[in-house]
Automatic annotation (TrEMBL):
A GO molecular-function descriptor: ATP binding
GO CC terms, sorted: nucleus
Ranges where the record places region Disordered: 1-59
PROSITE patterns tied to this protein: PROTEIN_KINASE_DOM (PS50011)
GO BP field: mitotic DNA damage checkpoint signaling
Naturally occurring in which organism (per UniProt): Mytilinidion resinicola
Pfam short name (any one): Pkinase
Biased composition (Polar residues): 1-36
InterPro entries listed in its UniProt record: Kinase-like_dom_sf, Prot_kinase_dom
The Protein kinase domain, residue ranges: 66-381
Name of the protein in question: Protein kinase domain-containing protein
Superkingdom in the source lineage: Eukaryota
Amino acid sequence: MTTSHVQSDSGSTNSEGHQTKDPQAQTQHESSSSDPTQEKIATEQGGESESNDSNEDFKGAIPKELLPINLAGAGLYAKVYYCIPRDSIQPYPNIAKHSAEIPKSVKDQVCVVKVIGTSKSAQRAQNEVSILERLQQSNDYPQNRISHFIKCDIQTTRLSSITIGAVSGPTLSGFERAYMEPRADWVPREFIWHIFLQLGASIRFIHDMKVTHNDIHSGNIMLDPGRQDFPGLPNVVLIDFGRASDFDTATKNPDGKSKAFTSRGDMARHIGQDHFHFSCVMRSLCASIWKAETREWRGFVDHLNEYESRFTRNKLTENDISTFLEDLFTQYEGPADAEREQMNQQDKTNIMEHLWDDRVRSRGPSDEEIRNAIMAELEEA
């Protein structure tokens, strides 16, 4: 089983619900709705009024080939569990009897399963699945920087589930709250450039695929120290496609019955909103940088401010909206990449140490939790 490493953060989880325990739980899902900074778990269905199937056994809906480790988080309409493929532990028959570290080959297969308790939630889950499958079919799909779908079981009369690759780090919002809001002068500008380059590239990719995310905020962005496309810095992972729109569905589904379908006429508006929220995320990060400004940095910040101002005043043309990220990358990708390349090793080390810190609970399930789950399974057998 392939998995991407985590999607979530402490004290919350993100699959989007509320009351989450861990970033991973956030599994890819921190819904933005009313409070974009609040990490949640499993309820990406803003304002769903359908009652929860409280009598159902959520844990029992986890695919049988997966061993539940623990609850990552819970929302009103869903629960998210850390799991591991049962066949991943078969080569280690004595794994539960020894206190040695759990093999990396096992831990790398930890995934998250979101169990959904209402039919409306299942509809949204089906939308997310169809869009992720479409994105993953592309040869250009950035697997390590976008939610990685593994499998699903969508039902209308009972509990549904989605299995998604886990991410081993915190959400950007969790990182900001823990380390940037109290004192941000330690954060190097090169790290903000890094977030711009990777997050911006992911958004450009999905837009090229005629998909819009529709829920971009710092709770739906994760920092994954377990994967480093740029050596020494965490991958920036865009998660939670539960609100996404697919503008190509009309050709494949002329009756417009797919939940992913959105009319082509709405595309510019959705792209504009994605760009606006991306700009808000970046501008918030930029405000924390104290390092002496360069001409390129000042121009970058001014570009973000200008776009946000014109967007809120409805002063953007359709061309302004569609070319925003392209223009931003044309002007600042080179300077951003060049400055990131010059980042010193100590600054990289500081970033990584903060990501592994317990304050953001970024590691997912511990060795002890994995071992306890295996032991409980053996005792039941």
